[in-house]
Recover the amino acids of this structure.
């Protein structure tokens, strides 16, 4: 029973990866999120999401895609605020 479940999980993972890889080859610039004056393209999301799916015990789902997209937006906004307030410069100076 364990082997069958393992094979099923591997099959689903491979099919998901193949789907995303075939779609990524088209360099899709369609925006999936637009906020402030920035956007996250479908291509950018797919590449980052595929990297996430490679981590152990991570399986594709609609809720995971939604929460991951929100995380990408949050990261971009935090980086923007850091750059605008000079925090990024202070951080880079501290690291030297």
């Amino acid at each position: 029973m364990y082997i069958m479940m393992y094979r099923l999980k591997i099959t689903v993972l491979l099919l998901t990866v193949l789907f995303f890889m075939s779609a990524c080859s088209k360099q899709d610039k369609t925006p999936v999120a637009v906020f402030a004056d920035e956007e996250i393209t479908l291509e950018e999301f797919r590449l980052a999401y595929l990297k996430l799916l490679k981590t152990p015990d991570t399986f594709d789902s609609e809720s995971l895609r939604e929460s991951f997209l929100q995380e990408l937006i949050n990261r971009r906004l935090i980086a923007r605020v850091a750059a605008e307030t000079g925090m990024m410069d202070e951080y880079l100076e501290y690291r030297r």
Notes: The longest helix spans residues 62-85. The mean pLDDT is 81. The CA atoms of residues 1 and 7 lie 10 Å apart. Strands lie at 31-35, 38-41.
